[in-house]
Write a structure and sequence with these properties.
This protein is an alpha/beta fold. The longest helix has 14 residues. It is globular. The chain starts with a strand and ends with a helix.
Length: 264
């Protein structure tokens, strides 16, 4: 399996823990375009993975039927290529994949960014069904998650704040793609995260959310943090794509501070 991994190396090796970024649904490694140079400039070896079927990774033709286990395999393959055991940073669906990875594998620490909650995504799907019943019907009929973000207006509603400039929105929108319907079912019903398995690792975990997230609301982010015996931090005036939305620098700065507090 050929996987796209975009890497930014620091100018000097400071011996810091490498970072592996895992994107969310309908995205790819490209979505970390702000974070990779930001963390490299602060001495971190920063890697962003495109899960199979995403970005320039193989598997686009079978994207709708890829199972969760294969996404976990992709993270495993990326970790195995790294210079040391990394900190895993997962956004949205990527946060779910990080949680599933940690049920059977280890990392130095983990950051969940606007992640699929530990309780799963069913409540999010129900909210979307109430808000957009016909669009959700089409989503299930076609199994295409892209139908939920298929226009710049829909993409902004789901992912970005009103403050994001239109030209920036258009650039991000042009790179959105379809997602695995099978993994979506796993996140909602059939393969929920198992915090009990991960807590046993005593793994440092940072849980961040956005106050204006249209997908995973602050209450769910806080419950996820509680499931991992920590406290969530919610950023005001931000939407779901916290690594691309206006104000992303504050999110990146908080992650750096948290890493340094732990000597990572």
């Amino acid at each position: 399996m050929q996987l796209e991994i975009i890497t930014q190396q620091p100018a000097t090796n400071r011996g810091l823990t490498p970072l592996l970024f895992v994107h969310g649904a309908c995205h790819g490694a490209w979505c970390w375009e702000n974070f990779l140079p930001f963390f490299a400039e602060r001495g971190y070896e920063a890697h962003a993975l495109s899960l199979r079927g995403h970005g320039l990774s193989e598997g686009r033709g079978r994207i709708l039927s890829i199972p969760t286990s294969e996404y976990v395999e992709d993270v495993t393959a990326a970790v195995n290529r790294m210079s040391a055991l990394p900190v895993l940073i997962g956004h949205s669906l990527g946060g779910y994949v990080v949680q599933k990875y940690l049920e059977t594998r280890v990392a130095r620490a983990a950051v969940l960014l606007a992640s699929v909650p530990a309780s799963g995504s069913l409540n999010m799907l129900l909210r979307l069904t109430i808000r957009h019943p016909w669009r959700m019907l089409k989503f299930h009929a076609t199994r295409s998650a892209y139908s939920l973000v298929k226009t710049p207006t829909l993409a902004r509603e789901a992912l970005f704040s009103p403050a994001l400039p239109p030209e920036t929105l258009d650039r991000h929108f042009a790179r959105l793609q379809d997602e695995s319907y099978r993994v979506g079912l796993d996140t909602a019903l059939f393969n929920l995260p198992r915090p009990d398995k991960i807590r046993a690792l005593a793994l440092p975990m940072l849980v961040l959310g956005a106050a204006d997230d249209a997908l995973f609301i602050p209450r769910e982010i806080k419950a996820t943090a509680q499931a991992y015996n920590t406290q969530a931090e919610i950023f005001p005036d931000m939407a779901h794509d916290m690594m691309l939305d206006t104000g992303w620098q504050k999110v990146a700065e908080r992650i750096v501070a948290w890493l340094r507090e732990r000597g990572l």
